[in-house]
Amino acid sequence: MTTAISLVHRLHQHRAWVNQNLLAAAAQLNDEQLRRPFAIGQGSVWKSLTHMYAAEYVWLAALQGNENALAPGDVPGQLPGNQQGEDALRTLDELRQKWSALEKRWADDLAAHAPESLDELVYRFSASFGERFSCRRSDVLLHVCAHAQYTTAQVVNMLRHLGVEKLPSTMLMALARQEAKQQQP
Known about the structure:
This protein is mainly alpha-helical. It contains 6 helices and 2 strands. The chain has one domain: dinb family like domain (Four Helix Bundle (Hemerythrin (Met), subunit A), Up-down Bundle), CATH 1.20.120. The protein has helices at residues 4-26, 31-35, 45-63, 92-112, 137-161, 172-183, and strands spanning 121-126, 131-136. A two-stranded antiparallel sheet has the order 1-2. The two termini are 25 Å apart.
C-alpha cells in the first residue's frame, strides 16, 4: 500500500539517483567547463552542484534539530553552496565523496520517519531573511526534492550548452523503467 511516507521515500530515492547521474555527467567535463560562467542557476555547473549539496546538507541538519547549520565551506549569511571557507569543496571527487556520505545520512534519517512525524515542526534560521521560521517536516522533505529537481534542470541546460552529447537521465519514469528492466528475468 502506498502511503505518504513511502511517497516521500520514493522522491528522495529519485533525488539521490539524479544526483549520481549529474555527478557522472559532470565528470565528463574539464575544470574550465565545470566552472564556466552561465547566466542561469548558481552561475556554473560547479556552483549549482555545490549549492544542491549544501542545501541538502543544511535541510537535513534542520530536520535533525540544528536550525543554524552551514555546510562545510559555506559563508554565514549567504545561500548554501557559496563555498569560500577553508573547508570549501575544491574538486568533483571531493564533492562526490561528501555527497555520498550525506546521502547515507539522508537514507538513515528517512528510514527513521514515522507517518505521524510528517506533521512535526522543523525550525530553520534564514540568514537571507534574517529570521527564524518553522514549517512542517513534510514540507521540508518535499522542498528538498523540488529544489533538487529545479536546480537539476538548470544543470542539464548548462550541460547541453557545454556540448555534452549524452545528457543525464533525470526523470522519475526513467528511474522506474531502469528498475523494471533490472527486475526482469
